[in-house]
Design brief:
By secondary structure, the protein is mainly α. 65% of the residues lie in helices and 12% in strands. The protein has a 3-stranded antiparallel β-sheet with strand order 1-3-2. A hairpin with a 2-residue loop joins strand 2 and strand 3 (93-101). Helix 2 (15-35) crosses helix 6, helix 3 (41-53) crosses helix 5 and helix 3 packs across helix 6. It is elongated and about 60 Å long.
């Protein structure tokens, strides 16, 4: 904190404020890491989902990742242009497209996993291994809580 900045004691004590700050730092670190491979976070999310689910129908991929259908089309167009995914008629329903990773898509995901691990290591560097385990456990509980 700079010398001339107010202390903001009340707001900095709020869990929601702290989570937002940690989240912003995490997004920045991961975003910078992905950019080293020319990738953006939505593209990485879709590639990861295809790796987990594929071959997967485009509509299911959109529902699973939560991207708006128009945004999903743009992301898939970018990934296909980069030869990271293929779109082919779904063998079970020819009206649908099935999305699969290409060999290059698999190779890129492996490189991105290493970069992501490095970024998350930087994010949690202030914590000991035991603190990291506890932090992730508590954060998981908070994130999965239903209102």
């Amino acid at each position: 904190m700079a010398e001339n900045e107010p202390a903001l004691t009340r707001i900095r004590a709020l869990p929601s404020w702290l989570l937002n700050r940690a989240s912003a730092r995490g997004r920045r670190l991961v975003g910078e890491a992905l950019a080293r491979e020319g990738m953006r976070m939505p593209h990485h999310a879709v590639l990861s989902a295809v790796a987990d689910l594929g071959p997967v129908a485009q509509a299911q991929l959109g529902r699973t990742t939560g991207f708006d259908p128009k945004d999903m089309v743009g992301i898939l167009n970018d990934l296909q242009a980069a030869e990271l995914i293929t779109r082919a008629p779904d063998p079970t329903d020819r009206r649908k497209n099935a999305i699969s990773l290409t060999s290059e898509g698999h190779r890129l995901l492996a490189r991105l996993a290493i970069l992501g691990e490095e970024a998350n290591e930087r994010l949690l560097a202030a914590l000991s291994p035991a603190e990291r385990e506890q932090f992730l456990s508590l954060l998981t509980r908070v994130a999965e809580e239903r209102d």
